[in-house]
Amino acid sequence: MKIGVLTSSRADYGIYLPLLQKIKEDSFFELEIIAFGTHLSRSHGYTLSSIEKDGYTTIHTISSLISNDDEQTISSSYGITVMKFADFWQNHHYDLVFCLGDRFEMSAAVQAGIPFGVSFAHLHGGETTLGAIDNVYRHQISLASKLHFTATEVFSEKLKNVMGGSDGVFTVGSLSLNDIKTFRPIEKETFYDAFSILDEEFALVTFHSETMAAQENIQFAQAMKKALAIISKDLFVIITMPNADTQGSIYREAILQLKNENENRILLIENFGKANYFSAMYYCKLLIGNTSSGILEAASFGKYVVNVGDRQKGRAQSENIINCPFTEIDIIQAAKKAVKLDKYIGSNIYFKEDVADNITKILKESI
C-alpha cells in the first residue's frame, strides 16, 4: 500500500512521528513524505533538515510560501500552493495520503487533489477553534477526505454532522500521545545545558496570532509582551516562536522586543523538535499561550495551562486548562493562579491506547 504523508510544519510532523515509524517498519506499506510549508522556510528554522535526518527513502519537497503574512500574501500563498500541488498530483499517485489538522497550506494541498481523485485520510478533524480561521480550513480538509481519525468521540459526532454520515470516521485519540506512557525526558542537566536554561522554574510559552481578530492583534501582542515581562521576574520564560499565520509577524516582533528588553530572563526557540519540546513540557512549571499543544498534550504531563484568548475557543478541554481573556492583567493573574497549584492529576480526554497501531490496522482492513 503506497502511502503519502503531507507535512507542512514542525507541529504536524511531531504529531505524525509515531505513525510514520509504524508505517516505515511495516513491509505492507510504501511510505513517501511530502514536505512543504514552513519546513522549507529559513526564517522558521528550516525543519526539513529534521525530516531528512529521520531516514525516509523518499522525501518530496514543494516550496510555495511567500515571506510576508498579511491577508493578501496568505491568500497568494494558498493559490501558489494549489498550483504547485496540481502539478504534483498529476505526476504522483498513492493509495492513500495522510493530512493533518487545519493549516491553510494543508488545505491548499488537499483542495488541489480533489480533481485528481486523491484519497485523503484526515487526522484531527471535527474539532472546533472559533477564534481561528483554521476552523474553516479544517472542515474543508475533512470534506475532501475519505478516512477520518479523530481525537475524541465528541469530535467524531461533530465530524459526522459536517460529513452528513459516519462512513470512514474512527475515534482513535490524539496521535501525539501515542508513546506518552513510555516517554522519558532528556536528562535534566543535559537538557538545561543544551539550551542554556537557568536552573530555576520556567514557563513554557507559545503564542500564535488570533486570525479571526485582525484588528486586535497589535493590541494582543503588546498585552502578551507586557504580561510575559512581568511573569519573567518570577519565572524563567521559554518561548517557542509563532507559526506562519496571518499577522504572525506582529507576535514575532513583540517577542523579539521582549527578548531584547529582558535578555537574561527569556529564551527563544525556533524549533525544539518533539523530544526536546516534550522534555520542556515535562520540566516546566506551567504552559502559557494559545496553542493546541496546551489543550491536547499538557494534561498528560500533569501541567496546568493558561489558555489565552479565543484561538482555541470551542475545542474540548481537560480540567487542567485555565482560560483567560487576552489582556495583560488577566494573563498575569491566571499565571499566578497556575503557579500556586500542585501537579495536575486528572485525566487527559485526548488520550487513548495504541493510536498508531489502531490506525495502521484500520488501513489494512480498509483495502
Automatic annotation (TrEMBL):
Pfam family, one: Epimerase_2
Protein's GO biological process: UDP-N-acetylglucosamine metabolic process
GO MF term set: hydrolase activity, hydrolyzing O-glycosyl compounds
SUPFAM superfamilies on file: UDP-Glycosyltransferase/glycogen phosphorylase (SSF53756)
Residues in UDP-N-acetylglucosamine 2-epimerase domain copies: 22-364
UniProt cross-references to Gene3D superfamilies, sorted A to Z: Glycogen Phosphorylase B
Protein name: GDP/UDP-N,N'-diacetylbacillosamine 2-epimerase (Hydrolysing)
